[in-house]
Amino acid sequence: MTATPIGKEIQAPGSGAGRPLPVRLTIGLLRRLGLTGRGLVILVPYVWLLLFFLIPFAIVLKISFSEAAIAIPPYTALLEWTEEAFLTIKLNFGSYIFLLTDSLYAVAYLNSLKIAFVSTVLCLLLGYPMAYGIAKSPTSWRGPLLMLIILPFWTSFLIRVYAWIGILKQEGLLNNLLLWLGVIDTPLQILYTDVSIYIGIVYSYLPFMILPLYATLEKLDDTLLEAAADLGAKPFGAFLRVTLPLSVPGIVAGSLLVFIPAVGEFVIPSLLGGPNTLMIGAVLWNEFFANRDWPVASAVAIALLLFLVVPIMLFQYYQGKQQEAAKQ
Amino acid sequence: MAQPNRKITLQPWQDPKEQPYVRIEKVTKKFGDFTAVDDVSLSIYRGELFSLLGGSGSGKTTLLRMLAGFEMPTSGKIFIDGVDMSNIPPYDRPVNMMFQSYALFPHMSVEQNIAFGLKQDRVARDEIKRRVAEVLELVQLGGFAKRRPHQLSGGQRQRVALARSLVKRPKLLLLDEPLGALDRRLRERTQFELVNIQEQVGITFVIVTHDQEEAMTMSSRIAVMNNGWITQVGTPAEVYEYPATKFVAEFVGSVNMFAGRILEDEPDHVLIQSEEAGCDLYINHGVPVPLGTPVSVAVRPEKMALSKEPPATATGRNLSQGTVREIAYLGNLSIYLIELDSGKMVRVTQPNFSRLTEMPITWEDRVYVTWHPFAGVVLTQ
Fold first, then answer.
1. ipTM for the complex shown
2. How many Cβ atoms from other residues are within 10 Å of residue B63's Cβ?
3. B15-59: pLDDT as tens digits
4. What are phi and psi of B82, to 5 degrees?
5. Which phi and psi angles does B51 have, rounded to 5°?
6. What is the pLDDT of residues B195-248, one digit of tens each?
């Protein structure tokens, strides 16, 4: 495989001749600022991230360092003009210290991580064979099969989670079926336990595991497996030594796409979980809406973010690596 | 560019006592309605460098894949060293393949790629190390053991692929268009290297190629395939000089084909009337077909001679007249396209013995085209 040479610089499009003067002047000005057509295109996602991610994050960070107050908004200001010309910053670490002192938060964080981790492993175990099956099916089948994976997204997430209540509750579909089949004598308590949370999360996030796995497995060159067989590897050995290592980028991408949102999941545990299930999403909601303690709620959010930054960076590292491999 | 040593000392297919090492017996492979390989039988002997030559869709790759075990014959049997391969999966066959795309494992280093097959066989660690180093030396990649495939050039990858398929010392090595991805210069060099390596290791090679030059250069024998059939099996010289069919004559090298009818058929010669050639064709071998049968006569361009004056020995046979239409000067030789008076275009190549400052024969010249009685080959199919 020889890489096609990519021109280092594509010639800048026409120098603007033949355009009206104001347009030419604007283009000239933008160029002088180092902004070409390409630069502007790249700018769009940056502006988007700045407006809808970085600025809200700064606001949350700011609130986390303030104190709760009975006011509108319900926290103290961070920056204050004292005397005449002195701008003082009052950083209040109270919220963070509070997170450390009250074991409730640590328990909630750990529980969230545990539930997210177990759900991710379950998604991987369920999703890998499905993605593999789709990738190995005849080309004409792949489209419809992928469509079936994506189809649930056409219904509201909330409704789908609600539907599980109907399935899992004591007099629900699942218990009735099991009773009818004679597998059990008395209805099982599944709803409002950790089991139902796992069911909900795995059900909801499975497509996010399958899609990147499929993308990786589908690209896998079948002749590599033939080569492995030719060199004496039996089918399972070839899977372990060739398919599995080459699908690691897909496994990582899928796992992070499940793990990251699952840690902060709020809807599923609050609908399907029991009163004893403590997840950080629910704690955050409580701080914000029930206690109206915005600084602590913000601190919870910031701490959660820090927990997630490591996996996100891992994700980006692997994505970069995957793109590099694809370039070969 | 045949190897004289091999030709004289080793022609096992001529020895009636020799047992074929690979025996393909009446093998047919169908994909749905399409017959890729049609009732092919073939014997390949130990130590041969055997080429399957054909265009795309000729069935050559399918035949190779059946030898490797990736495809199973619809009917017929394949024996390797006397063992029936019918129910033996690829991973249990004493056969290794070098893939056209090389199929190197991108997540493994050169060393790991080569060691892969040995690890499958649970060869001892020291032994693996020794054999990998040995084969890397053989393909002259000593310093590249730790590199990943994507850090290598096309030619180096090709050597890794070769090393990986050689290291298990298979009974049979299959090479699918081994030089297809290399540029011309590298290809020529690698052809000779491949032949040298084959002689060193003594493994039987079966090469699939669409490149007749490649097949001619490297092979002990060539099987020319067309539409799932084997049209001819022979040494490069046999296939070139005595093509069995029009297809072979046209596929291997270039050729001038004259349609005609048999006038006279004696054991030592035939005389063929051909309007296309504009003369009677005299050929010094007989053909087993009745008089009047329509046949084709193939004459290779380099076996024809051009002159402005009629040759002294002219008998009126194998002598035609025409006008020079095109000249291609290739340095070592020139190709002339001559339009015969019958309207038929013929191609004549002449070596350039002297430095041409002015060409003796030039565009629009009237010329005589002649050839020897041994130059033509009568083809009935």
1. 0.83
2. 28
3. 777 888 999 999 999 999 999 999 999 999 998 999 999 998 899
4. 85, -5
5. -110, 140
6. 988 988 889 999 999 998 889 989 999 999 999 999 999 999 999 999 999 999
DSSP-derived 3-state class of residue B337 = strand
Cβ distance of A231 and B154 shorter than 8 Å: no
B32 reaches A (C-beta below 8 A): no
C-alpha B83/C-alpha B93 separation (Å) is: 10
State how far the Cα of A320 lies from the Cα of A325, in Å rounded to an integer.
Answer: 9
- Nearest residue in chain A measured CA to CA from B156: A1
Q: Cβ of A226 and B106 within 8 Å? A: no
Domains of chain A by start residue, with CATH = 21-89 (no CATH), 99-327 (1.10.3720.10)
B4-94+170-249, CATH topology level: Rossmann fold (3.40.50)
DSSP output for B223-245? EEEETTEEEEEE-HHHHHHS-SS
As a whole number, mean pLDDT of residues B109-130 equals: 95
Find the length of chain B. Answer: 381
Token pair belonging to B238:
């046999």
Shortest alpha-carbon distance between residue B51 and chain A (Å): 20
Fold agreement (B4-94+170-249, B255-379): no
DSSP A68: B
Q: Return contacts of A71-80, CB within 8 angstroms, 24+ apart.
A: A73/A294, A74/A292, A74/A293, A74/A294, A75/A294, A75/A295
Site from B91, B92, B183 to mutate, A interface, most A CB atoms within 10 angstroms: B91
User: What's the pLDDT score for residue B5?
Assistant: 45
Decide if domain B255-379 falls under CATH 3.40.50.280: no
Name which of B287, B259, B282, B248 is nearest B374 in CA terms: B282
Task: Write out pLDDT tens, residues A103-151.
Answer: 888 899 999 999 999 999 999 999 999 999 999 999 999 999 999 999 9
> Domains of chain B: which residue ranges?
4-94+170-249, 255-379
